[in-house]
Amino acid sequence: MTDELAVTGIECFGHHGVFEFERREGQVFVIDLVLGVDTAAAAASDDLPDTVDYGSLVASVKAAVEKDPVDLIETLAQRVAGVCLLDDRVEWARITVHKPDAPIEATFSDVALTITRKREVARD
């Protein structure tokens, strides 16, 4: 059985994009996380070490978004998923990267990409 832990609306400032002005000026990116986690052990023990510490995770995700620029939000979403899957208790991660200030010549409210990544199963 897998439960879902969600943290939404994580605001970060990054310098990602294909255009030079995006890299130079930067912009806000908003990250939503939904993680597949078995929370039974944490519920039974009521101890933080038995679950995903979402405070520490958010700090790590924010740091990952705010470092080394990339061209595409696809690459950024993959980076964030990798950070989430570092915790062995996370079975899968659904990541949404919002780019509300994307350089589009039209009125719009958001650009968002959602990916789902699962933990790789070790094969002998």
UniProtKB/TrEMBL annotation:
Gene it is expressed from: folB
CDD domains hit by this protein: DHNA_DHNTPE
Catalyzed chemical reaction(s): 7,8-dihydroneopterin = 6-hydroxymethyl-7,8-dihydropterin + glycolaldehyde
Alphabetically ordered keywords of this record: Folate biosynthesis, Lyase
InterPro entries: Dihydroneopterin_aldolase, FolB_dom, GTP-CH-I_C/QueF
Protein's UniProt name: 7,8-dihydroneopterin aldolase
UniProt family annotation: Belongs to the DHNA family.
Top-rank EC class of the record's enzyme: lyase
Domain Dihydroneopterin aldolase/epimerase as annotated: residue spans: 5-117
Signal peptide range in chain numbering: none
Record's function text: Catalyzes the conversion of 7,8-dihydroneopterin to 6-hydroxymethyl-7,8-dihydropterin.
EC number: 4.1.2.25
Domain of life: Bacteria
Pathway recorded for this protein: Cofactor biosynthesis; tetrahydrofolate biosynthesis; 2-amino-4-hydroxy-6-hydroxymethyl-7,8-dihydropteridine diphosphate from 7,8-dihydroneopterin triphosphate: step 3/4
A Pfam family: FolB
